[in-house]
Design a protein that fits this description.
- By secondary structure, the protein is an alpha/beta fold.
- The strands form four sheets. It has a seven-stranded mixed sheet with strand order 2-10-9-6-5-3-4, with helices on both faces.
- The protein contains eleven helices and 15 strands.
- Helix 8 packs parallel to helix 11 (343-356) and helix 9 packs across helix 11 (343-356).
- The protein is 37% helix and 14% strand.
- The chain has two domains: 2-238, 3-Layer(aba) Sandwich (Aspartate Aminotransferase, domain 2), CATH 3.40.640; 240-356, Aspartate Aminotransferase, domain 1, CATH 3.90.1150.
- The longest helix is centred in the C-terminal third of the chain and has 18 residues, at 240-257.
- It has helices at residues 12-25, 33-46, 59-68, 82-90, 135-145, 196-205, 227-236, 240-257, 286-298, 323-331, 343-356, and strands at residues 2-3, 51-54, 73-76, 94-97, 120-126, 148-152, 160-161, 164-165, 172-176, 189-192, 264-265, 272-273, 280-282, 301-302, 332-334.
- The chain starts with a strand and ends with a helix.
- It binds pyridoxal-5'-phosphate.
- Pyridoxal-5'-phosphate binds at residues 56-58, 80-81, 83-84, 126, 152, 154-155, 176, 178, 187, 189.
- One of its GO terms (molecular function) is transaminase activity.
- This is dTDP-4-amino-4,6-dideoxygalactose transaminase.
- Belongs to the DegT/DnrJ/EryC1 family.
- It holds the Pfam family DegT_DnrJ_EryC1.
- The active site is at residue 181.
Length: 357
């Protein structure tokens, strides 16, 4: 069976080496040695602003919204994983959907200003499949209207934009270290923040508001990453670079094999150093997609419909129609894509795609 992704597992001895450190220290939670080591190594590897490690990639969205968005209207993209919208609704903010760019698939910055009201407090946009939003223009709009900017950068591990870590942008950027992502800690995540005062607020918010054992800086909740997760991260990190290189080989194979077809692949924004995180293809219509998906499933190959449905059509959203997002959501399929994918399988996937077309 071939799935859309295959979790990378490091050699077990390398994970065990970290587990031995945990057994020796007897510290398995709360700010242990491995937690600190991972935080330091990630900042260094990513050349990123300061970060806070979290138990998953959704909690940092919730905390950033809690701290920055009040209970206001949050301008967001309908084309993302459900976590983006769910975090907004869960934090008792109101999602206001703005359509996406038909090729970049990120929020269409030219349509943001029309959606701003006196209730708007923040913009929460996703760098979809690691493809950056128009960060300069979003920054300009946010400054002009006094809004906060949060980026769901769940797909962006290692992505650079104009030579800098993409996590430099926005008031807060979040990432997911879920097992399906390029770098993972089993489950896990992080939030990145340049401003030292905001960093401090995010930090205490993720640890019950503690200043010390008996003093509190404010309201907080538990979003902490534990030592077992940090151990997995430390064991996975040395392999990330070579995994991304191997993914590039798979990407090039797909790209060549699909050149003379009607299928569209992702258009990357200029200035991006990408991480080869996903291989989405866009069909001319949903029936084509369903036909290809069925043909692949019959061969035990399971691509995923990232992202379907368009988030404005979730059952708990009373939204209006969002044309481009709904159209793309119905026609986009992420092909199996991971490091070291077997060439025979790749040929099988591309020949099924071209035959069914
Ligand atoms: C994976 C993902 C998340 C959630 O991350 P978890 O670590 O699973 O909580 C949020 N947003 C997007 C766009 C994602 O793909």
């Amino acid at each position: 069976m071939i799935n859309v992704t295959k979790t990378f597992l490091p050699p077990i001895e390398e994970y065990q080496k970290y587990l031995e450190q945990i057994w020796n220290s007897n510290q398995i939670a709360n700010g242990g040695k491995l937690w600190y080591e991972l935080q330091t190594k990630l900042k260094d590897y990513l050349d990123s602003p300061d970060l806070i490690l979290t138990a998953n990639g959704t909690l940092p969205l919730q905390i950033a919204l809690k701290v920055l968005a009040g209970n206001g209207e949050v301008i967001t993209t309908p084309f993302s994983y459900v976590a983006t919208t769910a975090a907004i609704v869960w934090e008792k903010c109101t999602p206001v959907f703005v359509d996406i760019h038909p090729e970049y698939l990120t929020i269409d910055e030219t349509k943001i200003e029309a959606a701003i009201t006196d209730q708007t407090t923040a913009i929460l946009a996703t760098h979809v499949f690691g493809n950056p939003c128009n960060v300069e223009e979003i920054d300009r709009i946010a400054k002009k209207h006094g809004l906060k900017v949060i980026y769901d950068a769940a797909h962006c591990f290692g992505v650079k934009y104009k030579g800098e870590s993409i996590f430099n942008y926005g008031d807060v950027s979040t990432c997911s270290f879920h097992a399906t992502k390029i770098f993972h800690t089993g489950e896990g995540g992080a939030m990145f923040c340049k401003d030292p005062d905001l960093y401090k607020e995010l930090f205490y918010s993720h640890n019950f508001g503690h200043k010390s054992a008996t003093e509190f800086l404010g309201l907080g909740i538990n979003a902490k990453m534990n030592e077992l997760q940090a151990a997995m991260g430390l064991a996975v990190l040395p392999y990330v670079e070579s995994n991304i290189e191997q993914r590039k080989v798979v990407y090039d194979f797909y790209q060549v094999a699909l050149t003379n077809t009607e299928l569209n692949i992702i258009k990357l924004r200029e200035g991006v150093e990408w991480n080869y995180s996903y291989f989405p293809v866009i069909f001319s219509d949903e029936n084509e997609l369903l036909k290809v998906q069925k043909a692949l499933n019959e061969k035990e190959i399971f691509p995923r419909r990232y992202f379907y449905p368009s988030l404005n059509s979730l059952p708990y959203i009373q939204g209006k129609k969002i044309e481009i997002s709904e159209s793309i959501s119905g026609r986009i399929l992420c092909l199996p894509f991971y490091a070291g994918q077997n060439p025979a399988q790749l040929k099988e996937i591309t020949s099924t795609l071209t035959a069914a077309e």
